[in-house]
Amino acid sequence: MNYYSFHIGDYAKATGHLDCFEDLFHRRLLDLYYSREEALPAEVAAVCRLLRAHAPEHKEAVQSVLGEYFNLGETGWTQKRCEEEIAGAALKRSAAADSANRRWQKESAKTEGAKPPPSDPDADPDADPDADPDAGVGVESVPPLHPHDPGDANALRPHCEGIANALRTHSAGIADALPPHCEGIAPNPNPNPNPDPNTAPNAGSAAARDAIPAVPVPDPPASVGDWLNFFHREGFGPAAMQGSAKLRAALGGWVARGVDQAMLRLAMQIAQQRLGCRPNLPSYYIDIVADLLAASAPAPGPAAPPRAAAPAMARPVIEDL
User: Fold this and answer.
1) What backbone phi and psi angles, to 5 degrees, belong to 77?
2) Which listed residue, 44, 98, 239, 258, has the most CB atoms within 10 A of its CB?
3) Contact assessment for residue 86 and residue 34, using Cβ atoms and an 8 Å cutoff
């Protein structure tokens, strides 16, 4: 055995009166008993040699422990608790071995039971074994078309044109359904959950911006909410304006510095020229507005000449009287 259960409380209760040597050799006797899984030799000298007990006081301790906790029989020194633990471990090993054997026998039976299917006596011996057996079943044989036969080309042209028209219509529908990514995404003003695709305006288009309810925005805007309403009126979606602390801080700065709608529309034109389309994020215009504010700031005037130092006052001299 490489392992046995050791209960500290039970051991301390049963061996609390032993001295250091007796406790040491008691533990060694248990380890030796479990590792051999058999009774200890009847000769005390042989047991002392196995325990490396050579000093007289060591041999005396071994003799004392054997007499108190072990029984001398025909096979040698035995211990009831050790025999019970060894028998329990043997049962566990036997049960584990039986379980493993049953599992391997079951796997072997599955392997032996998987036999190849019987061959078809009517099958073509020259046929490809990897070919699909259902290939060609129920399909009419069509003679190959000659590449230079104009009749065959004319017969295929309507079919090809029909496929091209169907693909063109599908692509056009996708293009109409998706707005340009640079125009932003405006909220759907139509309360109908299934709008007519032929009449509903595209998000980000001029019709969609006109469909947004008009919210009065002072010029210049006097609060962060006014600027958000301005962007909303210009067709920017709510997702582009929410959760951006940088944008809200910049809008507050615009209010403090008196940025008006004309300056922001100029920033939009500059961004349009740079990118070829209008950015769909209001935060893109923060740096452009900052550049416009810096360019419109008044130039610093000439430095004032340094002031002349005031003449030092004459210190009265008091003569000694």
Assistant:
1) -80, 125
2) 44
3) yes
